[in-house]
Amino acid sequence: MKDNIISKCKFCGSTISSTKPREFCSQSCINKNRKGNSVSPEARLHIINANQKIRQKQMTDGTWWLRYPKAARTQTGVKKKKRTSEQNLQNSVRAIEIIKKLKTDGRWEEGNKKRSFALKGKPQNIEIVKKRKLSVKQSLSEKRKNPQWLLERSKTRFPNKAENNFISFFNKYNLPYKYTGNATFWIESCNPDFVNTNGEKIAIEVFCDYVKNREHTSVDNYIKKRNETFTKYGWKAIYIENKELENEEKLIEKIKNFGDKKW
């Protein structure tokens, strides 16, 4: 039997007893030594004591609470202040400006490509995805009952490209419909894109078949769900696909011949 050789670790200074001569006691000491020059245990104790003294000074002066706000909250029990509605609006406006800059520079598309490439091939848990969708629906249904939330959302919501095309189309032919897709008008949980201004309960929904097939499995399911809420309150809806704007004459006939009045 070979006798154990007693030595000291170069990094932490602990005693090592082994049959073969060793410089370090563990793999963690080897890795730490690779990052920089090894420090003696006496010097390490000196550094720890100095850091403790600096921390005590910072806590008395109040500078430590500014550097580490989360730790300060856990120790003192002070809760984080909630943001006001004005601060949320300012942040949303800033976010919209940043997104516009990214789109003009071309960095927005590059980021989307990188994200899509990173997510490809990763399996998703179906139960977790369903729970997330349900939580989003429940939170939205509760928020839509609050009139202040609706006003705040109307200030930060803007028409998309297709809706802008239809706004110019209605203005061009003086059709009595105004844009309400910015959360200014609600029928229960539905926010129609356009609403009649002549007193008739007629709404117009502009959609893309690709998006509705992805969200509602089919366009028919989307129309059924919307019609259920509209008919409760005596409303009717005209459903127009984006492609129909190419033939303006047919579209005008479709809108004018719809409803009780034919004008």
Give the arrangement of secondary structure elements.
Blueprint (H helix, E strand, L loop, with lengths): L4 E4 L6 E4 L8 H9 L5 H21 L1 H5 L1 H8 L8 H21 L1 H13 L6 H18 L3 H10 L4 H12 L4 E3 L14 E3 L5 E6 L1 H8 L2 H14 L3 E6 L6 H9 L7
Parallel strand pairs: 5-6
Antiparallel strand pairs: 1-2, 3-4, 4-5
Keywords:
12 helices, alpha+beta, two-stranded antiparallel sheet, 4 domains, 263 residues, single chain
Question: What report would you give on this structure?
Answer:
By secondary structure, the protein is of the alpha+beta class. It folds into four domains: 5-76, no CATH class; 82-118; 124-156; 158-256, VSR Endonuclease (Endonuclease, Chain A), CATH 3.40.960. The chain is built from twelve helices and six strands. The strands form two sheets. The chain has a four-stranded mixed sheet, with helices on both faces. The chain has a two-stranded antiparallel ribbon with strand order 1-2. β4 (194-196) and β5 (202-207) form a beta hairpin. The radius of gyration is 32 Å and the shape is elongated. The model has no long low-confidence stretch (mean pLDDT 78).
